[in-house]
Amino acid sequence: MDLKTQELIKKGEMLPLMEEFYTIQGEGAHTGTAAYFIRIGGCDVGCHWCDVKESWDANLHPPTLTDQIVTNAKKYAETVVVTGGEPLMWSLDYITKQLQAKGMKTHIETSGAYKFSGVWDWFCLSPKKTKLPLHKAYEEADELKMIIHNKNDFEFAEEQAAKVNNNCKLYLQPEWSKRDKMIPLIIDYVMNHPKWKISLQTHKYLNIP
């Protein structure tokens, strides 16, 4: 990679784009709404159940001009979701300012494990045990989405819920491969702890990206 490309990436004017697509948000507080997804490559959080492990190696995803990504998004959507991989591995100040300048709402889905950047209309925090969020992520979270893979994850979810701000919406989401086993447990848990809501990966049920 040449020095100019490295400098543009450092400024956030290029990003290692894995994919971009217009679809229906399948998870969390904005389930069922149309959005343009920008998936950025690179992640070292290492969730063993991750369903986009092909995103982990940023070197596999070509540096793409951020202005072109913004232009593509504007053709389709009013809301843009920046995800990964782990998007906060990269500077997101430039892309969010450009998106908002064009009248688009900016959402992020992140583990919160890297330095905060970007200007966000909605900040979805999904903490992982392998690499915990930084303090700023807890402060900024509009939505806490906890993935439930086993019974111990309920305790972890409560630990994380204690760290977010009082206005943050709380969601429990079954890990897809364990959904048949975990959904009944999540239903019981939410009924006994009604501060939580259930999030399902509805896009998978609908067979859309």
What report would you give on this structure?
GO terms for molecular function: 4 iron, 4 sulfur cluster binding; carbon-nitrogen lyase activity; magnesium ion binding; S-adenosyl-L-methionine binding. Its EC number is 4.3.99.3. Belongs to the radical SAM superfamily. 7-carboxy-7-deazaguanine synthase family. Catalyzes the complex heterocyclic radical-mediated conversion of 6-carboxy-5,6,7,8-tetrahydropterin (CPH4) to 7-carboxy-7-deazaguanine (CDG), a step common to the biosynthetic pathways of all 7-deazapurine-containing compounds. With 209 residues, this protein is α/β, with parallel strands linked by helices. The chain has one domain: Alpha-Beta Barrel (TIM Barrel). It is 29% helix and 24% strand. The chain has a 9-stranded mixed beta sheet with strand order 3-1-2-4-5-6-7-8-9. The longest helix has 14 residues, at 179-192. 39% of the residues are buried.
By CATH reckoning, the class would read Alpha Beta
Helix content: 25-40%
**At the fourth CATH level, what is the homologous superfamily?**
Aldolase class I
CATH architecture group name: Alpha-Beta Barrel
What is the rounded distance between the termini? 31 Å
| Order of helical and strand elements | HEEEHEHEEHEHEHEH
Features:
24% strand; nine-stranded mixed β-sheet; 29% helix; 209 residues; TIM Barrel
Topology diagram in text:
Blueprint (H helix, E strand, L loop, with lengths): L2 H9 L2 E11 L9 E7 L22 E3 H9 L4 E5 L9 H9 L3 E6 L11 E4 L9 H6 L2 E6 L3 H10 L7 E6 L4 H14 L3 E3 L3 H4 L4
Parallel strand pairs: 2-4, 4-5, 5-6, 6-7, 7-8, 8-9
Antiparallel strand pairs: 1-2, 1-3
Helix pairs in contact: 2-3
